[in-house]
Amino acid sequence: MGSISDSTLQALALLFGGDPNLWEIIGISFRVSLTAIALATPVAIGIAFLLAYGRFPGRRLLITMFNTLLSFPAVVVGLTLYILLSRQGPLGEWQLLFTQPAMIIGQIALALPILVAMGHSSLQATDRRAWETARTLGAGRLRSMLTLMREARFGLLAALLAGFGRIIAEVGASMMLGGNILHYTRNIPTAIALETSKGEFAQGIALGLVLLAMAFLLNGLLQLVQGKGRPVA
């Protein structure tokens, strides 16, 4: 019990003492994950919109596929991309394996199903007459789409936060694609796994506290935005 308390105190000292190695890991993690979510979100919303309002062959199959990918293990995503990006793989010439771009690609692959599935549900729940009315009044497709996105903004925000929470805490694909290289691809979850395996808990606890604080802030933000959107009784 004493060792756990000591490790926790050391973790707090690392956090509030501005340990450069710790904050470098945090910076890498947020930089990679924010880039991934920024790249994945526009594509995912476009796909979600097509699935919600489009009518084309294979639409139901695509919806089923994205819903199925929600439960796809991250390590399998990492393995698939590892094979593609390895020297013997079809994309080996890109030389992306064990780099931050490879980690970003992996996190995009993990975030996309969440963003599409939740975005599709949110957009499908909006009143279809809003789209028809906007088109009747002469609004272009983009303007009409933005109108619907505004109606579904709380659901889309929830999808965004869920996707970001998934990828920043994911360890399997990040470990396989990034290689956990110090000062380059070592992020929060891979660093926690490494330090725990060595029996060094202080840094792992410190990084775990960062993830907990982030989850609390993201959920608080979502509640705040949803609260502002509710009509006053």
Question: What's a concise summary of this model?
Answer:
The chain has 233 residues and is an all-alpha fold. The protein contains eleven helices and no strands. It has one domain: Orthogonal Bundle (MetI-like fold).
CATH superfamily, by name, is: MetI-like
What is the CATH class designation? Mainly Alpha
What integer is the average pLDDT?
Answer: 88
**Tally of DSSP helical segments:** 11
- So, CATH architecture? Orthogonal Bundle
Please describe the biggest sheet, giving its number of strands, its sense, and whether it closes into a barrel.
none
List the helices and strands in order.
HHHHHHHHHHH
Q: Which residue ranges are poorly predicted, with pLDDT under 50 across at least 5 consecutive positions? A: none
Span of the ends, CA to CA: 50 Å
Q: Helix/strand-derived class?
A: mainly alpha
Shape: globular
* Total beta strands: 0
Binned strand content: under 5%
Outline the structure in words.
This protein is mainly α and 233 residues long. It has a single domain (2-228), classed as MetI-like fold (Orthogonal Bundle), CATH 1.10.3720. Helix content is 77%, strand content 0%. It has 11 helices and no strands. Helix 3 (59-69) crosses helix 5, helix 4 (74-85) runs parallel beside helix 9 and helix 10 (188-197) runs antiparallel to helix 11. The N and C termini lie far apart (50 Å). The model has no long low-confidence stretch (mean pLDDT 88).
